[in-house]
Amino acid sequence: MNNFQNARIVLDEFQVVLHSPDSIAPVGVLHPLAFHLENKVESISSSAINDACLEKIDSVCEVQGDCLRRCTAMTQSIDAASNLDDVIEHRPLISKTRKDNLFSICCWLQDSSKISAGLQEDMKAVLKKIEAQLMEYGFGWENVLYIHLYISDMNEFALANETYVKYITQEKCPFGVPSRSTIELPLLQVGMGKAYVEVLVTNDQSKRVLHVQSISCWAPSCIGPYSQATLHKGILHMAGQLGLDPPTMNLCSGGPTVELEQALMNSEAVAKCFNCSVSNAAILFVIYCSTRIPPSERIGIQDKLDRFLKQMRLFQENKGCLSIVVDPILLYVLVPDLPKRVLVIILLKPFRKTEQWRAKQCQLLESAYSYLWSDESTWGMLTWHLDLALVEIKPVLYVEDDMETRETVVEDMSCTTASNHWNFQEASWHDNCIQKCVIPGKICVIVLSVTNEVATKVCSQSPGCNQNNQDHRFCDEEIDRITKFCIYLLDKVLAGNGFSWEDVTHLKFYFPTSLCMPLETLSLMFTNSFNEFAEMSQRINICKEPIFNLIPVLGSGKSTSSMDDIITCELFSQKH
Fold first, then answer.
1. What is the pLDDT of residues 124-160, one digit of tens each?
2. CA nearest neighbour of 270 among 400, 394, 174
3. Is 564 exposed, middle or buried (0-12, 13-18, 19+ CB in 10 A)?
4. pTM score, whole prediction
């Protein structure tokens, strides 16, 4: 293995085998016939590569930046975002959390009276707006840790990537491109454009990035211009994981539970590179389920996840590696579609120097999917067919150097004293709405599920409410009260665990299209409720941008059998 730190493989003979001729994106494989080694000009710097990862993985890049490339990236960002006339024309809207050193920015297009100009134009407008917003704070794309990319049609996944790489490039991100999750959402149904982007931003450059560039046997290579995982301040943000078999990059056959198991195995392989495990370090799992999964098969997904985590914990315990176990929060989200059987384009560029490729390149070149980079300035492109994905998971892990010092708590909510805002009375059933993971003085993660039953109880104290809401429909006044209840209960949990709204790094409200409410209307309700809360409590500062973002889905909830919440809240807060 160490030999590859001093030499590179050069192909002498190879054959291009065309798999699927196509005028736009032909699919082919490169078959090496003969190759030799050449000495490298310079060896790999120990500061550029994590030695621990080198012992475990096939082709991983951990990136550190430098001042010169950062300045170049900033110059390129300024040039790219200098003309914002078309952005203003599209009416992009922004939300931003209030934390200074770690915050999220979300941007979308909202104009129900205007027909979208198309995915690429919508993405350009959104990405330009975010880029301009980053520059306003003195940041660039290199400060972005994670990107949620939501699009209206997964058939346009390749177009989304094509536009994406014009803005998020290695030149602009010398510390590593951000990790990413791409999901199809019903954006048009709620009066939005075809693209919706959320970014998690930090004011420092301490992140560590894992990028799987080559086909290997241990973890899938990235099927888009993103990194598999990003570690920052003890939080490991993983890209969305599909049930792809790493050596073949084919979607596992056998249905959603088989896909889920493979996706979990892929997540575990990535976690091991950071000396942790999903079995005991995961604090949050977001599981995206395609609506194509029959309802009768959805319960199997939850059972498979529970069994997998138990088996992995037992395995870690037998090895003597298991420390204090975190019971992760589970959030299931029903969406129209996931990355699927379109021609998926890999647009990958080596990090800084091709010398940083390492580990068993000979084996990789013999793989049918291997690709030889011509030079450092050229983007490599490799395409293949993916089957219809049914499940995607997005794990978030807590990583500490000394895992034995970690403590997690689940406090008795009945002992927490909360202010009586909006005349809400404390009740024991409030606890049943909440999933939370708290690491004292460091992290507080909350998922609040407002089911139809909960919503009915919340509205029962409101004058003129429908006490027998059999058709599961709520009027605007009742939805408005539900937004206030969400804020009240989130504040109760934050305050009870020593956190404030200034510690919040992201706040999402998932709502179903069955609510039959435009995003603009629901956004105004939450905005007004937060304004009222700020006046009553003095616990939050209100600025021009809202601190939350709304995500339209087909359904969401804390189990696969009940993805029918009226509203689901996902809040992440962190002190550092």
1. 999 999 999 999 999 999 999 999 999 999 999 888 9
2. 394
3. middle
4. 0.78
